[in-house]
Design goal:
The chain is α+β, with helices and mostly antiparallel strands and about 210 residues long. The chain is built from 6 helices and 11 strands. The strands form 4 sheets. Strands 3-6-7-8 form a 4-stranded mixed sheet, covered by helices on one side. Strands 9-10-11 form a 3-stranded antiparallel sheet. Strands 1-2 form a two-stranded antiparallel ribbon. Helix 4 packs across helix 5 and helix 4 crosses helix 6. It is globular and about 55 Å long.
């Protein structure tokens, strides 16, 4: 069983303190029942016992899948020592800095989607969104894989409040995967894979293929 630690949280509404459970390390292989609490953000949800206000509390948390050798760390402060103790030859390690990215990485690994290729796919979604809506795309999040129709689903957030869902074909994903796999950018030791990583990879010529 996972032993959470109890911390004090001050409600931003009534300013009274209450107890909140934090989970430093969640071994999902040993505790599969925790999955729904993670994906629903229940482990980050605090309901004030005094006024009923519900808030989201982000804290350092490590998701550990010892069966598939995935380690995803939500880091608000410094990198936990646990990550340093895990060999990158054995585990795929990712570091994220917000809850949305934490949930997304878990979903990607569960669905067998390479998160690096996913970030590159988002660049094309961004270009398409901005052309169609004449607005800036603030964020794109992977929301699941449609096995029947061979699509990847994404939730898009625009600066025009034009939030929407869109799909990308698995064939488009596979095309980018083919270019990426075995290239100089296929570095398995990278831990922070995000939009900045994707833009740098694009700038460095990932799609400049010689005929």
């Amino acid at each position: 069983m996972i032993n959470p630690k109890i911390v004090s949280v001050t409600c931003p509404d009534c300013h009274k303190d209450g107890e909140f459970r934090q989970y430093d390390i969640i071994n999902i292989t040993e505790n599969p029942q925790m999955r729904n609490d993670i994906m629903s953000r229940q482990i980050f949800s605090y309901i004030c016992p005094h006024c009923g206000e519900k808030i989201i509390v982000s804290y350092d948390c490590i998701y550990l899948d010892t069966e598939n050798k995935h380690c995803i760390a939500l880091i608000n402060t410094e990198i936990p020592a646990l990550i340093d103790s895990i060999s990158v030859q054995d585990y795929t390690i990712r570091i994220v800095h917000n809850i949305n990215d934490f949930i997304e990485k878990i979903a990607l690994f569960e669905d067998g989607i390479d998160d690096r290729v996913c970030e590159l796919c988002k660049l094309f979604l961004e270009e398409s969104y901005e052309e169609q809506n004449n607005a800036e795309l603030l964020a794109a999040y992977y929301s699941g894989r449609d096995m029947e129709n061979e699509n990847l689903h994404f939730y898009l957030i625009g600066d025009d409040a034009g939030n929407c869902e869109t799909t990308l074909s698995m064939q488009s994903y596979r095309n980018i995967l083919e270019v990426f796999s075995g290239s100089q950018f296929d570095n398995k030791s990278e831990m922070e894979i995000d939009s900045e990583w994707a833009l740098l990879t694009l700038k460095n010529g990932i799609f400049n293929i010689e005929e």
